[in-house]
Each structure stands twice: as C-alpha cells, then as structure tokens.
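Reproducibility note. Readers wishing to regenerate the assembly model reported in the main text can use the exact inputs given here. Chain order matters: entities are listed in the order in which they were concatenated for prediction.
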Amino acid sequence: MDSNTLYYSLDLVSGIGYTLNGEQRAALQTSLLLLKKNYKFTRVMFWGKILGIKDDYFIAQGKGDDELKDKKFLYSFNCMEWHLLPPADDRMVGEVSRAAKGRFTGDPSYEYTASPLQREGDEASEEVVATKLTEERRLAVTVHLIDEEASVVPRGAFNRTHLGLMQTNRCFEGLSHAEAGKLEHFLHFAKPKKLKKKFIQELADLDPSIDFLDSLNDDIPNGQWSLQLENAGRVCVIRSLLWLGMTFYHVPMTPQHGYVYMGDGCKNLDLPFML
Amino acid sequence: METQQADQEMDNQKQQAATSFKAFMLKSSTKSNLNLYDHLARLLTKVMDERPQNAVDVIEDLSFRVKRELLVDFQSTLRDLPLSTAAQLLAEQQRLLFAQVDEGEQDDELIESPLPNVNEISYYLEQAGVALGREEMQRIFLALKQLVESQPLQRCRLWGKILGTESNYIVAEAEYREGEEEEEQSPEEAPKDEERDADVDDEKEGAEEADALPQSTYKPPPAVPKEANGSGVNKYVYYVCKEPGLPWVKLPSVTPAQINGSRQIRKFFTGRLDSPISSYPPFPGHEANYLRAQIARISAGTQVSPQGFYQFREEEEEDEPDAPRDSYEQNPDFEGAPISKMAESLSNWVHHVQHILKQGRCTWVNLATKPEEELDEEGEVEEKEEEPDEPEPEVGPPLLTPLSEDEEILSTPPWTAKMSSTLTSQYAVSILRSNLWPGAHAYACGKKFENIYVGWGLKFAGQWYMPSLPPAPQSEYPSGPEITEALDPSLEEEQALKAAQEQQKAAQEDLESLEGEEEDEDD
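Running the prediction on these inputs yields the following structure tokens for the assembly.
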C-alpha cells in the first residue's frame, strides 16, 4: 500500500490479525521518505512483512514511471535500514522451488541446500552438486512470486497511456457498492497471462486502456479468493487463499485501495484439499 | 423627420425580423421536442463554464454532449428503487450495540461484571503487532458486553477470530456461573438423543420390510465417551458471531471423535456454521463441530501464561497422587517476571490448558473393560485375546509444563519469543508467537498477560498435506468351489458323459431284470 496512506490503510487490512506497532509505523514514515529520495522512486509502497522464526522481514517496494515494470523490492529488519533485493528470474525461481523448505529463519545469510534433482535412476550426472541458496535469494523470489500471483487492483485504478506506460488513473472514483461485491471487477496487478486466450466475444466488451490485466475471476482453481465486506461492511477486503496473508482492501466509491502481505511466505500448496 | 421615420421603420423591421427568427429558433422539433434557441444557449453556457481549449474545434462534440446530457436528465426522472446495501443492513443491527443503558440499574452489576477490558488488551496487542483494527475492536468490545449481559457468565474472554472464506468468526470463551450451566445444557442434549433413537428405529423397520438383508459383522470400535461439561476439552463454552452486533451462537460441546477427525483433515472454514464438511476421512459433524474441535486444539496448544501466575490447588493432591491435576488457581504472590527474561527463555512460560491425548480427551479413559462382554456374545473371543487386556494409559505432559519442553515440528521451533520494541526496551512488552498454530499470540507485561488467536484455524503442516488414503477393499466372501464358476463342458465331453450314463442305466436295468427274473423264478 502507498506509504502516503499508511496512516489509515493499515487499520483496514488488519482483519487478518497482523499489524505494525507504533514504533514501526513511525519508523516507516521516516525511512520510506528517505528511500524515495535516495533511489529516485516516483512512489514508495509498504509491501508487507514476512514472518521469520527469529526475525521478521519488512518489505518495501519502489516504483518508477511504469507502475508495472519499474519496480524494486527492498527489505529491512528494523524498518530503518533498507537493503535492495536482487531481481528474480526464472532460474532463481527454479532453484528456490527445489531448495527452500519450511519457514523463513530471519537470517538473510542462512543457506538452504538443495537436494539434487537426479534420483537413483540416472546416476550418470553425478557431478550435480547440491546447490546452496541463501535466504536473501529465497526472499527475493518469494516476494516476486507473491507480487506476481496475488497482487490485486480494482478495475480502472490504472490505465495505459498511448505510450504504453502504466500509470495511476487520476479519474478513478472507486467501484460502486454493487461492483465491489464481484470478483470480476478486480484485476491481477501483474503482466497479463490469460488475456490473450480469451474469446473475441469476451474481448469486445473490454476497454483497452483499462482492461489490460487479468481478472481474478478467471483464476484456477476457482475459489482461491475470499471476498468479504469488513469493518461494518464499509470496506471490501479480498484475501488470497493461495498465499495466506495477502490482503487487499478497497473502500467502495473512493479511490482508496491497496494490498499488503503479512504472513510466513509459504505458498499454500494444500489449497485443492481445503476448499 | 422623414429620415427619422425611415430609421424607425428600419428598426421595426429589423426587430421584427429578429423576433421572427427567434420564433423560428424557438420552434421545437417534432422529433426530439428540443428547440435550437435553448440548445445554443445551453451550449454557450457550457463553453463559458468549461472554457475548453480551442473551443471552435470541439463545438460539434460539445453540442452533441449537451444533447446527450438532456437525454440523461430526461431518463433520470424515473426514480431508482434505492437498494439497501449490506453495509446498511449491518448498520441497523449494530445500532443496538451503541444503545445507552440506564445508569441506575447497572451500577451494582458493574463491579462483578466478567467483561474483560478489551481496550487495554487491544493496546498491548498492538504493541505486539497483532490487531483487528481499532474500530473493529471497539465493536467487538460492545458485542462482548452484549453477550455478558444476556448470559449468566462467570468469566468471559475474547478468544480470538477465525477467518473463513465467506465470513469470519469472532470467538468468545466463557464459563457459566455455577448451577446455571445444567439448565442450559439439558434441552440441547435431549433432542439429539431422540433423533438418534428415531434413526435407529427407521433402520430397523427398513430391515424388516426388505426381508433380511445380510447383516454386517463389522463392529465399530467403542466410541470414546465425551468429557463432561466443565472439564477437559469441554471446560469452557464458546460463543461465536460473524460480525459484532449479530447474534452470538453457542457452539456444541466437542467429542473425542470430532477432535480426532479434525486432526486428519485440513479444510478452510466457510463462515456458515451449518455447512457440511466434505472431506476424507469423513468428519463427524458440521462446521460448528469442526470449529469447536479446532478451538479446543488451539487452546490446548497455545494458551500460555507466565510461570508462577497460576499455581495448583493444594487440597486435592492426597487422594490420588498419580492422577493428573487439572485445576489451578491464581497465585496471589505473583510478582511478574522481567520482560527481558520472558523474551529470552521459553521456560518462563507455561501451558495452562491441558494437553489433548491421542484419544481425543484430556483425561485418559480405559475402553478395554466395558466392551468385552458384548464381544463375547458374538464369539470373537479369539480376537479379543490377542489384544492386551490392560492398554497402556496415554499420558500427556502435566499442566503448567514450561514451553521449553514443547516438541519441534520438522526442525521448526514451536515458539518465537520477542520484545515489542528494541528502542525503548525498558517499557516493552514481551511477545510470544506460536509457529505451530500460526496466528496464536501471547503477550506479558508485568502482571498482565493475554492469549489471542487470529488466523485460519489451521495447524502448521510442515511440508504439505497428504490426505489419508481409503482402506483397501475388504474381501466380500471366502472363495470356494461352490461359488467358483466352472468351464462349460464341450460337446465331446457331454456325449461321453451321456454315453457313460446310458451305459450305467443299461447295466442297472440289466441287473434289475435279472433280479426280477430271479424273483420270478423264486415264485
């Protein structure tokens, strides 16, 4: 969520149980501002918190001109000193999925050892040594994956300019109460994957300057999002059941929206059994 | 003079032309009932209001927009039926929370009220990084007040919140005043038993009608008896509500079968108490029972207090030294441990809720004695003898065991202890977070402590969940020659058999005729 609205928006997403205490909030207000200046970001977001066994990682996200492509993640333990996370690519994602097990420890230099892929069947490639993976890299990949798979924006909050830049839509006035109750009006804030596969008939109703993102409604398995009206029914809250801890809020009829992740950083692979 | 007259005439003419043209412009269109004069007036007003850049280029668009706006106005004379949103309906319900009570009636009750100070708890919890939102907490506070006023409770506590996919449960833990409990319980228990009897009757009738279906020889293992209200897992009663202001619903007491069932499944709560649980192995009950079972497990695993806050009662030790002690009282001499110590070492925290055994109860019950007689009738003595006569009693860790003795799960330590602040540590609160039940928290500050659970009601699973596989199918009957299908005989075999039979018959007839002859001869 945007660092400028952190005052009140944290209260709206704390239905999941986690929040920041006064000390951390105050520290964030100071350090995020400095972060924006030092890294020349156009917008700084407080992205969330990943609970470790010994210590928790606080994650911030900085954005450049393009809201979707120019983004960087930083982590911190005390909300003051921030360290840049390496950008995640497909090779890293593969490494992490093999090596990472269990909870985060809270020590960025902690090393996970990957069990080599080869089983007893193919003994030929024995030179594959067990790869080592630091927790910092795992953190980078996890944050990247969560942001890719579970970040949410209301439809119309961002538009695409004629130059292809993705920017906040200044004319966005919020979804109506009826719209906020339906999952199809919320979009993934990530590079669209399913949009191209849609039927032409479905594409006909879409507005190309707004509908350039995937809708949450099309996700498989169905039912991996829990949409509720909270805070006396005034705030629309969406929780991801795939990444437990991802909470999105939107106050209908206002442009306020945002998401935050507060959880243990483990994907809920048991989801199909649990619905 | 003439020129003046001529001028006046010209003016008159001009005026007339102008008025006639105005009249022309005021003529309304037969199609749209608009007229050009008003339209131009509106258009120019719009230009003046909006002052668009290069107005002349966009005047056509503006004109079109003016027309369209008129149409919208015309349409909007149809009144919308105002739909009341969910928020409005909820607000109607929550209005009652804020109702003022006459002070005179309340004064004497305030002293002994079991209502916890949720505001204070919420303050400390926020230090610990746990919250439900300040306004929401206030509403929950008022809802708890409503609960305390409507029920004869001796003790009441905000237990926490369980998230569901459709709505959430706010859970309150309560204890009835002595004597009031039974009255509450009996009407609920009775109808259940009747239902069960009715079911059995139905089955019997059905069996009699469709003549004698084969009876299954399978006998389910004897059900572990439920713990009585006020003891073990049913020590407290739990009330849940979906939103503060909506009615509180009392959860049914939990049976050992439900506890064991909930250990084997992994399901999200939906938020509807009566929704069925579709799972394998099947769960005995509805979501209300599942919720109650999870609450019992979470309480047993994560309700902790600073060491020394509670102590055992002294009187009851003599009669049964071996029996696990299940009651404690508040230690009046408790001083409160220093925060830094509490955050450093888990041995300064103790469990104050009994461990749930594998049987699904807190106190172990010997099932082997009772069912033997029943089994004897069926002639299954042999099987019985193989089992040990006296099963090993299950024993859990005793009450008030330090947390440092909790087991690790897949090399994950079960607890994380911390301080709320590193900058002003002398005024910090010590926090305990459970890694076994993500979402369970405890804090301690001086003599005060509290436990709360906010989460999905699921245990940390380690790697991934493996649902138990269905058992291998039973063999339906012993296979023997009388039910095995034989091969059909071939033609040659049949003929050979026929020939053999005929031969035999002929031989017999010969024998008979011979005998007959002999008899004849005798005569």
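We highlight two features of this model. Residues 207 and 215 of chain B are 10 Å apart (CA to CA). Residues 183-207, 316-322, 370-388 of chain B have pLDDT under 50 and may be disordered.
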